[in-house]
Amino acid sequence: MYQDIYDIIPADRVKFDEPMAQHTTFQIGGPADIMVIPTTVEEIINVLRYCHQRDLPLFVFGLGSNILVRDKGIRGMVMKLGEGLKTVCIQGQQVYAEAGVKMADLCRMVAREGLSGLEFAEGIPGSLGGAVVMNAGAYDGEMKDVIISVSAVDLSGVRYDFSAEQLQLGYRSSIFQAGGYIVLSAQLKLEPGDPEAIFATMAEYARRRRDKQPLDMPSAGSTFKRPKGLFVGPLLEQLGLKGFQIGGAQVSTKHAGFIVNTDNASAADVMNLIQYIQETARSKLGVELHPEVKLVGEE
Ligand SMILES: Cc1cc2nc3c(=O)[nH]c(=O)nc-3n(C[C@H](O)[C@H](O)[C@H](O)COP(=O)(O)OP(=O)(O)OC[C@H]3O[C@@H](n4cnc5c(N)ncnc54)[C@H](O)[C@@H]3O)c2cc1C
User: Fold this and answer.
1) Which residue minimizes the CA distance to atom 52 of ligand 1?
2) How far is the CA of 269 from the centre of ligand 1 (A)?
């Protein structure tokens, strides 16, 4: 049905019925009808045209570290950007980076150049594109602090440049979460710093993560956004939910803010656990918990 996709993307970067469990850090998710891995902006625009002409739904993946794909998978096209588009240019304090660059690679690259401001991103296991869309952050830093502008295309392939103000960056939110755009690249502004001190800060953040987070288990990081003035981990501990499990999905015994895939969890297991936690927090403490993790696909 989609064989003519090879006209625009080489066969080794096109997959049919691709199990999305292999592309999410949760290691959960049914198959995508078709998945492509574009490596240039031209390929992205050709894919957009292809989907538009065929009325094919399109979902964009970065590196799948904040996504729960439901068990029946994704109908239509998945475009995975976390494996292509990896150019980085550093000029003085300004950094231009494409959406597919891994945040972990980017923060090490700029640290080597003596640029400070991305230390917070050490240990955030996604792509630059995903970090922009999520306004990813940690340890008092977030993408909002460093973004000057972002280049994106809409679904008809028209290119836009957004200033930082236009992005409405808030706590784990940006205008891109409403869909309709593909983030191509970002321009960042960093500050001069001592590489040794920058790497020391990053090592300290990595140590804190190892101590507190279940990094040896598949997860999508923090399951819920932090309600104002509260921390989700201690809240779920207070509710007696640490270690609570539905099917193969468990509230981590190391950090209750994470749901981990402990034993071949299905997306339904995770969804049921999320719902159970939300109902418990609502009924016992009057607290509304909103998932940070993005849900996609058919139940
Ligand atoms: C162990 C662990 C620790 C984590 N710690 C943190 C943390 O400290 N702070 C934090 O903020 N997050 C954290 N996360 C969550 C996650 O890593 C971030 O949200 C990350 O920024 C997502 O990037 P990604 O490339 O994986 O995006 P994905 O998960 O692939 O996608 C996330 C969303 O962005 C969209 N998207 C991705 N790329 C693009 C693009 N180029 N154009 C348009 N839309 C796009 C997707 O459609 C989806 O809606 C953690 C996750 C794990 C597993």
Assistant:
1) 221
2) 21
Looking at the fold, whether 114 and 42 belong to one and the same domain comes out as no
**Which CATH number fits the domain that encloses residue 176?**
3.30.465.10
Mean per-residue pLDDT of the chain: 97
282-to-104, 207, 225, 246, 252 alpha-carbon distances in Å: 36, 33, 15, 19, 20
Q: Is 127 in the pocket of ligand 1 (CB under 6 A)?
A: yes
159-199 confidence digits (pLDDT tens): 999 999 999 999 999 999 999 999 999 999 999 999 999 99
Is residue 114 domain-resident?
yes
What are the structure tokens assigned to 143, written together? 């993408």
Give dist(CA 250, CA 242) in Å, integer: 8
Instruction: Indicate whether residue 131 lines ligand 1 (CB < 6 A).
Output: yes
Assign residue 283 the CATH number of its domain: 3.90.78.10
146-163: pLDDT as tens digits: 999 999 999 999 999 999
C-alpha span between 260 and 250 (Å, rounded) = 5
Query: Which residue's CA is the closest to the ligand 1 atom numbered 51?
Result: 221
Q: 151: Cβ below 6 Å to ligand 1?
A: no
pLDDT tens digit sequence for 103-160: 999 999 999 999 999 999 999 999 999 999 999 999 999 999 999 999 999 999 999 9
Q: What is the pLDDT of residue 82?
A: 83
Q: Is residue 235 part of a domain?
A: yes
Q: How far is CA 146 from CA 105, 119, 131, 243, in A?
A: 16, 11, 12, 37
* Total of domains in the chain: 3
Residue 44, domain extent? 3-80
Query: Is pLDDT of 3 > 90?
Result: no
Residue 155 CA from chain centroid, whole number = 20
